[in-house]
Design goal:
Blueprint (H helix, E strand, L loop, with lengths): L1 E5 L8 H14 L5 E4 L5 H8 L8 E4 L9 H4 L8 E5 L9 H5 L4 E6 L3 H16 L10 E8 L4 H12 L4 E6 L2 H9 L12 H18 L15 E5 L15 E5 L21 H10 L7 H9 L1 H5 L3
Parallel strand pairs: 1-4, 1-5, 2-3, 2-4, 5-6, 6-7
Antiparallel strand pairs: 8-9
Helix pairs in contact: 1-2, 6-9
Amino acid sequence: MQRIVILNPKGGSGKSTITTNLASFFAARDMKPTVMDLDPQGSSIRWVNKRDPGIATVYGIAGFEKKAGVTRSFALRIPQDSQVVVVDTPAALDAQRLPEITRDANTILVPVLPSDIDIHAATRCIADLLLIAKIKREEQRVAVIANRVKRNTVMYRALMKFLHSLQIPVIATLRDSQAYVRCFEQGVGIFEVKPYSVREDIEQWQPLIGWLTQRDNVGTSASPLVTTHTESRVVATPPTTSIPSGITPVTAIPEVANVVPPTVAPVTASTAISSVSLEKLYSLSSKGSLNSASQSADKTRSAQLPYWFLQK
């Protein structure tokens, strides 16, 4: 069983959004994920309760509740058929609780917003993970998600430069999209609605899903759901019952044939970007090309710059 912890003591960074949509991905793969909500606001557990019984199974554990006559370990027990646990942590989390929360985590994801306040909070959060929780960089258990970003902005470039300085892998940049709001209201995730309506959002999740697949080996069939360069086939999902009105379930999930998850390898002199300065690469994260001759070919690569460039 894999355990993924979504952590950032700064409130409003998008922890619940990432938690619920990760759970929806694993649910679409019939992995019966468990959402463990430790946040007293209960956003993630409310999303679980919104889900209709007819759609893919997602278990929910309200870890913030204290029930009389029940031990803590019993209250937090994971269903036996659940293959993945996604933990949503609270805001203003005491740094002394980090060792307890991250002890059994295979992966720790830190969402960061492009603002000066959030950058400062992320600095403290990652420092506490390294110094108090004793997370070692070489274990590669910690990764950053740049959340609600708007490319071609000064703040986005500042965020990318800051994240690179931490020497922590940045595995995804997610845009500010209303699709997440609509899905949350229906108790589903972006991986459980019609792919054409959220194609751009799903594409931005591909580096994250690929990194989780490689790092934690989560699910033998967990390949990216959408691609623009590879011929795909459609795999039908089992029929469901009692779908509520207003929800568009997934009737077919596009699955990429023969896709190898992205590898985490250091940038060497043999790569195409060996002669490009760091400042140039930061600029490319918004401009999208290395030179005019290869502009069209590099637009796709620059869109994933935070993932393939910052791996060390």
